[in-house]
Amino acid sequence: MLKLRSFTKFPRIAKVGLVSLLIQSLVILALEIKIFVLSINHLSIFDSWVSDKSPLIIFLMFATATFFMIYLYIEAIIQENTLQIFTFILFHVYTLVYGVLMYFHKISNTPSDVLDTITEDSKPYLIAVPCILSTTLGFWIYISFKLYGIFGWEMYKLIGANVLFRDMYKQYLLFVQLLKMDFYFFVTFASQYVLLILHSGDIELPITVALVPISLVTLIIAVYALKRESRSLMWIFILGLIGFIGYYTFKLVRIYDKTQDTKYENQRIVLSFFGFLGLITVVFTVFQAIKCLTNFGQGLSKRIEMIEGNVNENFIDGNNYYINSAGQRRMALEEYNG
């Protein structure tokens, strides 16, 4: 049975990582707040709606990324999820790239009449954000490998040496990680698209807004279908993902449509960045969903219940469990292949 750790029971390296992450996040947020304040002080004189809102959106995107990174790390150490630890590393790299992108975006889209002033005031803070993220990347890679060794052994003791089951369970965990990234990238892309590009009269506005809760429902269906091994729901989910692939493709093509130059001129690079990442993540999710679908009917759902602690007590009391070398009751996987 998978037990959630309390903070006092976390490995020391996990505690060090958590405290370091909170400090890093506070520093990054403080820098972003400073950049935001400096930007609006200078940009308030502009007539462009997009220019006025861009600093706020950039700050919100960085704040969202920072809190999402904290969520990934905390959930990973609570659930002893090694795959999510590496998802955290990849997300840290994404945040670093976004920080670099924001520096060049800021410089290239600031009107020339105030460029020197804004650059002089904001440049140290704009540079500091990616510098901090790049400097701490090596530290997080070290923390992640340490946690992988600890949590990997704990998971091995829980699951056992059944290679087939370990592979199926890894596929399940990877699928769940992709779902989280799907939701994050879609919400951030849609939010920027609505707030920076669309106006109240645009026909795309209600469609884009409606797709946010639809995407959440779609992801919930995916998790339910996987745990219940429902082939019909899984195929519905896959078809929904194909629809999102079409959505991203349409938006990316539209962003580079010559007839839309005025609309996307100042936001093309940023929207392309989020749209491309969202598209790639959805494509990977489709392939991963099909992989998980092929594992249906092999006892994966009941084994997930066992790991997550949802097995019926009468079943636990049966003969399908044995005491392993660590003194834990574990299912005899060789007897539980159906």
From TrEMBL:
Name of protein: UPF0658 Golgi apparatus membrane protein
Species this chain originates from: Smittium culicis
Superkingdom in the source lineage: Eukaryota
Xref: InterPro entries: UPF0658_Golgi
Keywords recorded for this protein, A-Z: Membrane, Transmembrane, Transmembrane helix
This protein's record includes keyword Transmembrane: yes
GO cellular component: Golgi apparatus
Membrane-spanning residues: 54-73, 85-105, 125-151, 172-195, 207-226, 233-250, 270-293
